[in-house]
Design goal:
Shape of chain A: globular
Largest interface: A-B, 15 and 17 residues
Shape of chain B: elongated
Oligomer: heterodimer
CATH class of chain A: Alpha Beta
CATH superfamily of chain A: Metal-dependent hydrolases
Radius of gyration of chain B: 20 Å
Distance between the termini of chain B: 46 Å
Number of strands of chain A: 26
Radius of gyration of chain A: 22 Å
Number of helices of chain B: 3
Number of domains of chain A: 1
CATH topology of chain A: TIM Barrel
Strand order of the largest sheet of chain B: 5-1-6-8-9-10-11-12-13-15-19-18-17
Chain lengths: 569, 268
């Protein structure tokens, strides 16, 4: 029975509504409680900021495409004149890599920043065993993974015929087989079209041989999602990513959500999560007149309550892009001539991996950087706006503290903006220079804690400090009465003063003190549906006819996920 | 120039990673501060003071600092002079992998051999090796596309395979022989082999010059002889057979410009 009390910290928490009040926070046996006995361990947080453990709503940290990145970028472990493979803290294992870190570095670095939960954003169902093996080996942080459904042959056939019951039964079966959390949809139809060398650039393009359009896929997935009462909404990476002028496609995709209402009792209020919006908010007709359309997109998001988004901020680093959007990666590879990896995942999806250098003095990269920040700054509802880098696509997750500092300190971001080689051109093409807003600590706690917890349907147990919630808690060396600026702020977020996971002290002064007592859990969703013989028949038939594995070798058995937290809906 | 002498106290069991042994890290520090610099043996972290006896006076800047390294067991130390930008390092013995890797300036003098990945992705400076070099001399690291960009590497003995892959500038002089895959993917720079190369010289080369004095066992099929010419190489004039070839015009970055890799062999 361990009891801990964090005394006199400035508490920021959207769940209990504390906006920097000086208060005590108590933890007992891995949960927050109202009070503890006098024998509790006392931690003094005077002049420090206290928040719940953060949640990352969209990151790529486990699975075959991350590993493909590790395979074909051995040079990632040497960066900017330093060796990135080393034993950092006395009680940790060796950490390596920069944009595609090892599983150990992933777990430790997230813990040092105060994160307690990660959502692996794209799990190819066929390789879900590998995803869960990497999740199992990532220390400290809880994780979940979303299987991809946007290019799945079964879903195409059910949705084309309007068979929502069958689609729901299939999704429920798939979540159980892969220990998945929700419905991810990457470039609906386009990744399947890529098998024929084609793509779907708008939401009305036909998917070859399937007689279905991306619009029907997205609408069908949302219907299925609400039919099943899943905790998270449909998680969409829409068509036409990364191309100039794509914001119209983005708006078309977002408008599909208007007709739907959330149907869940887990606290979620949205029906569509649009991920890494930065890559989808481009204007112009080519790279010459490339410009920001973040205002247009965010105006729509702000007035539509059913939509949540995450930013996908570019951090201006050398990184490795990886996505289930195969055709996009091919175009990116043809653009920078570095390396290109491509995988076709049978009936389910495709994927690609390409290294990418976001150069500080490349106009297009600078505009992308500005758009990422604008999206967070234009947001009127922090509960529906989350900060991500789409790790590692727009930058590694280890740069989150730098993004927080850019958002919270206008001077810091303006200094960088004005130091660009093409600063005037970048300022002309973006809105960033005109925005004076600085995100407050309370808004940050909404964007990184309460918001993602609500969108993921986890608001009952995470993202806040209310009594009974999981005792994930971060203390930062930030005094709200005397806010640090720029680099100091960044360092304060990068190395939390304390981080408690399930009431266990994991990090002290930015050093991982002991990761062993923490039980990391794998979250997955068990959706109850009536038995559906038609779907089971279809599955058997497709496995016999097309799949390269037998049905018995497909399921993620418990061996791959030893500590499960099952959400039953 | 001020000299700091460091002498290994014992031969490491595993390999010792000494990226702290550069004039940049030593300059302007007291001997105690130098002794506190990190190094690691396998997964265990140590300080330089735990492994080396340190004496002498470092200079105020890297350019005024010289480091003399003595054995026993320098052959089990990696990363000597890696990322150095100025000054001088002398290793009295053989050095292990990554010696002078990512070097940007200054002088590195190895009295014995160097092992694989030495002078990796070098940007400038000078490296002189009295003995031989193993594989990947002055090459790009595995998977990287940014090879050697500048500087000079001189090897008195032989070199292994994969010399100067993705080379983009600078000069490598090998006074002995070399193994296979010389200058693969090179986009510039000069490689001079005063002995023989085994085979596959200049494969997928876009630009740059490779001198192989005594030829290679089998010339790549993409090359053809165009002329004979007298050229001064490393201070000596010789008659050379000039070959051109490989991927020049088909390279995606050449944008239609016709460039060739050049291979020169002595006319005997």
């Amino acid at each position: 029975m361990t009891e801990i009390i964090i005394k006199n910290g400035h508490v920021f928490d959207a769940v209990t509504g504390q906006k920097g009040d000086v208060a005590d926070v108590c933890m007992k046996d891995g949960k927050f409680v109202d009070k503890v006995s006098s024998s509790a361990t006392v931690i003094d947080a005077t002049g420090k900021t206290v928040m719940a453990g953060a949640l990352d709503v969209h990151t790529h940290v486990a699975g075959p495409k991350v590993n493909l990145g590790r395979w074909f970028r051995p040079e990632d472990k040497f960066r900017l004149g330093e060796r990135c493979s080393a034993k950092i803290d006395p009680k940790t294992k060796i950490e390596g890599g920069f944009s595609i870190p090892t599983v150990y570095k992933t777990g430790y670095e997230y813990a040092r920043m105060g994160f307690g939960f990660l959502m692996e954003a794209a799990m190819p169902p066929l390789y879900s065993r590998h995803v869960h093996e990497e999740i199992r080996d990532t220390p400290i942080v809880d994780e979940a993974a979303m299987p991809v459904f946007g290019n799945n042959w079964f879903m195409f056939e059910y949705l084309k015929n309007g068979e929502i019951d069958n689609a729901a039964a299939y999704v429920a079966w798939m979540l159980r087989q892969t220990k998945g959390y929700g419905i991810k949809c990457v470039n609906p139809g386009g990744s399947e079209a890529w098998a024929w060398g084609l793509n779907c650039m708008t939401i009305n393009d036909q998917v070859p041989y399937f007689d279905i359009t991306p619009k029907e896929i997205i609408a069908g997935l949302i219907t299925t999602n609400e039919e099943l009462h899943l905790p998270h909404s449909v998680h969409l990476h829409s068509n036409n990513l990364g191309n100039p002028g794509n914001y119209t496609t983005t708006l078309d995709s977002l408008k599909i959500a208007e007709d739907f209402k959330p149907n869940t009792n887990l606290g979620r209020k949205t029906v569509l999560h649009h991920t890494h919006l930065q890559f989808h908010s481009y204007g112009g007709t080519g790279w010459g007149d490339f410009e920001s359309k973040s205002k247009e997109v965010m105006d729509y998001v702000n007035k539509t309550e059913q939509i949540s988004i995450d930013t996908g901020c570019v951090t201006l680093d050398e990184t490795t892009t990886m996505t289930a959007d195969g055709p996009f990666e091919y175009h990116l590879g043809a653009l920078n001539h570095l390396k290109w990896g491509n995988v076709d995942v049978e009936l389910e999806t495709s994927s690609g991996v390409v290294p990418y250098i976001y150069g500080k003095n490349v106009k297009v990269c600078d505009i992308q950087w500005a758009i990422g920040l604008e999206i967070a700054l234009f947001s009127k509802d922090p509960m529906r706006t989350m900060i991500t880098t789409d790790h590692p696509n727009a930058g590694p997750f280890t740069r989150y503290p730098r993004i927080y500092a850019w958002l919270m300190d206008k001077q810091y971001r303006d200094d960088l903006l004005n130091s660009f080689k093409y600063a005037t051109k970048v300022i002309d093409a973006t809105y960033l220079a005109e925005i004076d807003r600085e995100i407050s600590l309370y808004e940050l706690s909404q964007m990184t804690r309460a918001g993602p917890a609500q969108v993921l349907g986890l608001s009952g147990s995470m993202g806040g400090l209310a009594s009974g919630m999981k005792a994930n808690l971060a203390v930062y060396n930030i005094n709200p009465d005397n806010m640090p600026k720029g680099l100091d702020l960044e360092n304060a977020f990068a190395k939390s003063a304390y981080f408690f996971k399930d009431g266990v002290k994991v990090v002290e002064n930015g050093v991982v003190v002991d990761a062993d007592p923490v039980v990391k859990k794998t979250y997955w969703v068990d959706a109850k549906v009536p038995e559906n013989k038609q779907v089971l028949h279809d599955i058997n038939e497709k496995f016999l006819k097309y799949y390269s594995v037998n049905l018995g070798n497909y399921e993620v058995i418990d061996h791959y996920a030893p500590h499960q937290e099952i959400i039953e809906v | 120039m001020n000299t700091v002498t460091i002498k290994l106290k014992a031969v490491p069991n595993l390999y010792l990673e000494c990226e702290s042994v550069t004039p940049d890290k030593f300059a302007g520090k007291s001997l105690e501060e130098i002794a506190a610099l990190p190094c690691s043996e396998g997964k265990r972290n140590y300080t330089l003071g735990e492994w080396f006896e340190i004496s002498g006076v470092p200079g105020a800047t890297a350019a005024e600092t010289k480091i003399d390294v003595y054995g026993p067991g320098t052959s089990k130390c990696k990363y000597f002079g890696a990322w150095m930008t100025a000054g001088e390092v002398v290793v009295n013995g053989t050095a292990d992998m990554f010696t002078g890797a990512w070097m940007e300036g200054g002088k590195l003098h190895i009295k014995g051999d160097v092992r694989s990945f030495s002078g990796l992705q070098m940007k400038g400076g000078e490296m002189l090796v009295e003995g031989r070099a193993w594989n990947y001399l002055g090459a790009a690291y595995r998977g990287d596309w940014r090879g050697m960009q500048g500087g000079l590497i001189r090897i008195k003995g032989d070199a292994g395979s994969d010399v100067a892959t993705f080379m983009n500038g600078g000069t490598i002089i090998i006074e002995g022989n070399a193994d296979i895959h010389i200058g693969t993917h090179a986009e510039g720079g000069t490689i001079i082999i005063k002995g023989k190369a085994h085979r596959r010289v200049g494969g997928q080369m876009v630009k740059g010059e490779i001198y192989v004095f005594h030829g290679c066992d089998v010339m790549m099929p993409g090359y053809k002889k165009i002329e004979e010419r007298e050229i001064e190489v490393d201070g000596e004039k010789h008659m050379f057979n000039v070959f051109i070839g490989d991927l020049g015009e088909r390279h995606p970055k050449s944008k239609g410009e016709v460039v060739y890799g050049h291979i020169y062999t002595l006319k005997e």
